[in-house]
Amino acid sequence: MDLHHQHDWNLTPEEAIALQQSLQQAVITLDQFQSIDTVAGVDVGFEDAGHTTRAAVAVLSFPGLQLQEQTIARRPTTFPYIPGLLSFREVPAVLDALEKLHILPDLLLCDGQGTAHPRRFGIACHLGLLTNIPSIGVAKSLLVGNHADILDEKGAWQPLQHKGETIGAALRTRPKTKPLYISPGHRVSLETAIDYVLRCTTKYRLPETTRFAHKLASETPASELEKLEKKQAMATPLESEQLNLF
DNA sequence: GCGACAG
DNA sequence: ATCTTGTCGC
Predict the structure, then answer these.
(1) Where is this region: Disordered (predicted)?
(2) Three-state DSSP state, A208
């Protein structure tokens, strides 16, 4: 992929933090996109006791939410899990999976935080910036910040705040369940992020995009992996020029 | 120094 | 995230 913000991945935690602070300056939390016809769910799982990273991308039509395409990529795990540095562990594999797509998704729903991060640069921001695809962070638990109690009805939400600023929202996507933490990744405002997450959510707590991607990243048997590999190789994969055209 | 800590 | 069975509640 010909990325506008390419960079080395062989970094120490200290270098990774410095890079986040640098790249964060380029993040845009305003709506900057045209029509959204496809939404992709991105998720990552691990095999071999964590030695292998498996990334999955599921592209759904929008607003119909019908599966259009799915890809999987596996590669050796090279970075440990460190709170605040998740993207350095998962993004390389995700980029591999995105390169296999034939359809360029209009929006990315990522597993994890966007701006709801100590340095305002969660995995959704990192992926959005590298691919230049509008992105949203959809996390199942909190990394940083606080919020008031949320009404127990779908759609209810409260701003997530940290050090005096609103960094995201705690959103109830289903009654009687824990909220989801939504935040802008890149080129999407918080209000719009909440709207899209709700429009991708049907009867479950997690959006359909995330559910499809998670199924691929964690529940797909190795036996069915080769079947997917063939489908992925059938047509011409997304060319780098198609990604990043501002 | 102590506790918290996406996946 | 992953290792793992049954089980409590709407």
Answers:
(1) 223-246
(2) helix
Q: Nearest nt (C1') to A141 (CA)?
A: B6
The answer to pTM > 0.85 is: yes
Note the CA–C1' distance, A49 to C3, in angstroms: 9
Nucleotides of B under 7 A from a protein CB: 5-7
Q: What digits encode the pLDDT tens for the residues A6-55?
A: 999 999 999 999 999 999 999 999 999 999 999 999 999 999 999 999 99
Ligand-binding annotation for A195, yes or no, is no
Kindly list the protein residues whose beta carbon lies within 7 Å of any strand B atom. Answer: A 43-44, 81, 83-87, 111-113, 117, 122-123, 137, 139-143
> Buried b vs exposed e over A96-134: b needs ≥16 C-beta within 10 Å?
bbbbbbebbbbbbbbbbbbbbbbebbbbbbbbbbbbbbb
- Domain extents for chain A? 29-228
Q: pLDDT for A99-138, tens place per residue? A: 999 999 999 999 999 999 999 999 999 999 999 999 999 9
Q: Which CATH number fits domain A29-228: 3.30.420.40, 3.30.465.10, 3.30.2170.10, 3.40.50.11240?
A: 3.30.2170.10
Q: How many Å apart are CA A7 and CA A130, to the nearest integer?
A: 9
SS3 A121: coil
In angstroms, the CA of A143 and the C1' of B2 are apart by 18
